Amino acid sequence: MKQIAVYPGSFDPITTGHADIIERVSKLYDEVIVLIADSSQKSSLFSIEERKDLVSKSLSHLKNIKIEVHTGLTVDFVRRVGAKVIVRGLRAVVDFEYEMTMSSMNLKLAPEIETVLIFARPETYFISSRGVKEVARHHGSLDGLVPEVVKKPLIERVKGK
Ligand code: ADP
User: Fold this and answer.
1) In what order do the strands lie in the sheet containing 4-9?
2) Considering only CA atoms, which of 77, 88, 32, 73 is closest in space to residue 56?
3) Is 161 a catalytic residue?
4) Which of 23, 48, 58, 74 could crosslink 147 through cysteines, CB 3.0-4.6 Å?
């Protein structure tokens, strides 16, 4: 049976850190589904369709990737596609509590699904979507922070905001 991993997140926008996690996970599973969470709780810079498009363009070199959008519980989506694994990235210690709480909740809701945490590599552990938006707003260099295809749309979008 095909081993599928689901990597959920906001990806507003996708960063080099996200892309690195996806590349590494794509070597461990037959298929990785990047799940863009459609959360009304968070105000976003890019629309769902734009985020999907940026993820897709950034990962066009990977063959076993799918990009999906989901509103609602991640575990419901994971079950529906027949996956057993949720992947999350871990940066600094501050991520730990949030990820642990969320993985415990998901385990309670769906005991058959495991959360697998992948450590960020030293070159990208400080990168966040929020951080790259801030850099773009203040005209800092985005080199190494976001995939090349994200640079222009990000710079354009933060203009005047
Ligand atoms: P969320 O809003 O659910 O935290 P994000 O899109 O910000 O979604 O992140 C999705 C996942 O990727 C989270 O597990 C987050 O910790 C992880 N992540 C974010 N940035 C990095 C990075 N630079 N390196 C590794 N993992 C990261």
Assistant:
1) 65-70, 31-37, 4-9, 85-90, 114-119
2) 32
3) no
4) 58
Q: What domains does the chain contain, in order, with CATH numbers? A: 4-160 (3.40.50.620)
Q: pTM of the entire structure?
A: 0.95
Mutate to test the pocket of ligand 1, among 10, 16, 20, 21 (most ligand atoms within 8 A of CB): 21
